[in-house]
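Morning - zinc ion inputs below, output right after.
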Amino acid sequence: MGSIEIATVRCAVCGRESRQKLLRGVRQSGPPDLDLRPAEMARSTMQHWLQQCPACGYAAPRIDEAEPQAAEIVAAGPYRALLAEASFPPLARRFLCRAMLLEEMGDLHGAAEATLHAAWVADDWRKPDLARAWRLDAVALFRQGPPPPLEQRVRIVDILRRAGDFVGAAAQAGELERSSLPEPVDRVVAFERRLIAAGDVRAYTVASALPPPAARPHVSHRAGRPVRQPRGGLFAALRRLLGRG
Ligand SMILES: [Zn+2]
């Protein structure tokens, strides 16, 4: 199920040394949620996705590496204020710190992703107001960046629905339906449509959007087989489910 390495690393922003964990090779044993939150075991490893320097608060996948602008962003008022925001779950704060760094450095889609991770933490902490706000922030960041690819636009429908913005989710689904959607992406959008109509904000896996395995005998033998953590996003997850991965 992967391994955790513990090492002493030197922060590339402030130079302080600290003990940090590095996660390797964690797999997930099922399909991800429609917003691509991974299945277990990867789902339970979020506290190891980012390292954070205990001295300056710099957050990154590896804090011994930093872009040239990072030190200035970490030292500035907004970042210090975020670090001091005691009402946020600490792990969510770490993802939001990463989001702030990425946004300031111009990687808006990366910032959206990190903000969505903060929303997943809020889900786990049963903080629905924070989860909703961060999902909407994530969508805004996706839209401020370069035009998102098709699979990211499909994912935005789910993020808006999970935030309870059914009008926004329906509008996003409508925009997608006006283009000809490849199969099985069309089924995902149709599934989202049914959830929006029902006012359903719950999490569903990518598999929920597809017909039951009985209708797909050519892939049923794959049930329960561990799959690697998704790299290619929504489409790759769908291809794996349909046995075309
Ligand atoms: Zn530091």
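Note: Residues 151-218+231-245 form one domain.

O.
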